[in-house]
Amino acid sequence: AAFSGLNNLEELDLSNNSLQNFEYGVLEDLYFLKILWLRENPWRCDYNIHYLFYWLKHHYNVHYNGLECKMPEEYKGWSLPIYPETFDLDKDDEEWERHKEQTVQTVKKQGVIVTVIG
């Protein structure tokens, strides 16, 4: 694993790379991580982003920023905490379309992306 042996690392800046997701298990040795910088990466919000989402959810003491979907096009601009709400929705469903429209409108109206941890 890329971060094995870095057990005491408290801050990790992965900004401005070409990261689209993390392979399963790559973050497991970061026991004392407190801050994770993720901005300016082309995050691909599909099934492969699930590991990162669930790792952050279970490591709620880790503060992170910059996790915004760049691909695929239908999720571009969505923040990671919003995207996983769509995991179990059928894209052809009317409820899915309403959810998608409301989320995009909320993000546009507010002009601020709020990251909820925990």
UniProtKB/TrEMBL annotation:
Q: Which GO terms describe its cellular component?
A: plasma membrane
Record's keyword annotation contains Translocase: no
What is a single Pfam family found in this protein's UniProt entry? LRR_8
Keywords, sorted A to Z: Leucine-rich repeat, Repeat
The record, for InterPro entries, names: Leu-rich_rpt, LRR_dom_sf, LRR_TM_domain-containing
Record keywords: ATP-binding included? no
What PROSITE patterns is this protein classified in?
LRR
Fetch the PANTHER family from UniProt: ANTIGEN BSP, PUTATIVE-RELATED, INSULIN LIKE GROWTH FACTOR BINDING PROTEIN ACID LABILE SUBUNIT
| The protein's name in its UniProt record | LRC17 protein
Provide the species name: Cinclus mexicanus (American dipper)
Taxonomic classification: Eukaryota, Metazoa, Chordata, Craniata, Vertebrata
Query: Gene behind this chain?
Result: Lrrc17
